[in-house]
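Forwarding these from the shared drive since the link keeps breaking.
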Amino acid sequence: MTVPVFRDDAYLSVAEATVVSADETGIELDRSVFYPAGGGQPGDVGRLERADGRVVPIATAVYADDRSRILLRPAEGADLPAVGETVVQHLDWDTRYRHMRIHTALHLLSVVLPYPVTGGQIGAEEGRLDFDMTEGGLDKAEVTAALMAHVREDHPITTEWITDEDLVANPGLVKTMKVKPPMGQGRVRLVRIGKSLDLQPCGGTHVRSTAEVGEVHVAKVEKKGKMNRRVRLRFGPLPADADA
């Protein structure tokens, strides 16, 4: 089993680890600061530094089939480290941090728009959530203002754990309709914003405070079906000439 270091410390971007296996499917370490793709969040990129100074570029990270192991996919043609070798992991921190900020912003968006979530995606430039809602004509300026109010309130962001049984007994914690929280390990991780602003299952990486999200805005609202609206967030202020 790979120890998911990112789950306890999303800010750790450099760390030693031991190579457990290395083949065409990927490089497995005993502990990983690389977040594996899942829940709409891309896998981290970066590099592994070997003892002799050689570098193994990492193109992405994924879960193995049983989800107990994390595999780092090296760039094509990269030399693989040996089993038992000690390497130093280096994240592409700028990209990871942008993912963290957008991810937290999307949680805030689900507070501003309290509808069931049918899908979502996180990127370094933008993120989006799809909502099960029939109402059209969302005002981008109004939603942006409500979202930024929560950002500026500087709510702390913490994590906690509940059992699988507790989650089943509290289905209202789950906002997503199609993607269910990973269960079967005995416990589920929750992400809390403020004391009571938001609480939902999530295995992704987040910033420590809503203030770290920075300036974001609703860039686009798209109709993706009779009862589906896609709302896109991007970094930066809402353009002055943005349409409602």
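-- next protein --
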Amino acid sequence: MGLGRGLILVLGAGLASWSCGEAEESTPGAGPSSSAETEPGAPETVIVRDPPVLEPDELAPAGEAPGASAGSATFVDGAEQPAAELAPESSCAATVVQAEAVERVIEIPVEEEVVVPSVFYLMLDSSGSMVSERLTLAGLVEAVLDIFGLGRQSPAPTKWDFAVDGLNSFFSDPASAGLPIALGYFPDGGACDGSGYDQPAVPLAALPENQPPLQSSLDARDPDGNTPLEGALRGATSFCQSYNAEHPDESCVAVLITDGAGDQCDARSGEALAEIAASAAASGVLTFAAGMQGADFSVLEAIGQAGGGDCDPATPSFACDLTADSGAFVAALNGIRDRTRTQTRIERRTETVLQRLPCEWEVPAPPPGATFEPGRVNVRLTSPAGEEESLAQVPLAGGCADGGGWYYDDPLAPTRLLACPATCEELRAETETRVDVLFGCRTVLR
């Protein structure tokens, strides 16, 4: 008999009341009396109480008359019943464990490496300390001397001067061509929850076309105010999360640049700010933290590590150190650009696959008071067209050499029924064949 194709059918491991001989007869249409519990996600079990009755000549081995199973016993509540007292064989096979005709699919998580281009949102500290403090101690001393007319050279540039020079060099670098850049400042009227800071002062656009707007914005900026790190970090990462959601084929990188510690908002510690960066990283946003003179590098370390932004993989630290001069500023930005301009990220998706028919079936536990009789079990296949085929049992796996069928895993203490390789190959190729395991009638042997 050819096997049909269509839905996947899975054999469960349940058992109804055993009906054979003097056992209680099934009532057509009645529900199952019991079924074995299954593990979560296990194939479903359906108990058929009134299946088609198999004819004696279909089930009895050659040379035996129906009902003549000398020395064997069947399931009878409370005790074994001698075979000679059984009803005719045609009254057996009233208990069936069958696979339900329901399509069953498996959803498998799939991880795939995907290379995506990056865009950058630079969040720049423009607090008052960027212009009120000199970048070096020597510069600060020279500035004081100059106040009293004792200075011998011009005061050292401010940290803001170095930031502007470094950014302009980065923007004009030919290696930055084609890189989309957005620029934001803090403080800049935003809130601690990130609102306001998630809207860049210079909108996102690719270099070199975006260089003039970026440079003009920096030149017009007059640093002043405090350092709301929480609002700046939330705003930058929020912008990137929204961008990634709208552009799944790209990846936004947030770069936080500061010269101080947070002195506004509730989240000021490294642990609290790291939680914000970690949440963004979980959604695919890289966050880098860069510090100039006066920054709390322990806080920036926590942000960079949690945000996945390692400024220099060759060193143990995560934060970018910009304290040296404008050259360090440019080098740090170039390093971030070159390592993240295109990212290899893991894309997770769910793939649905078909679950094929199994090639082995558990022997269900018998009801209370009954015992299992290995010689009264049969396996029947039913095609979508209703054609039935009873699989013959072979003594051991070696008996499969001559064809299909099934055998017990252990003839003396069976726990599973296994399909022969040829039968298994047929089952795996089909998707709509029904498998019934019938109890109560003598096993069809080959």
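The domain at 111-350 is CATH 3.40.50.410 (Rossmann fold). The chain has a mean pLDDT of 75.

- D.
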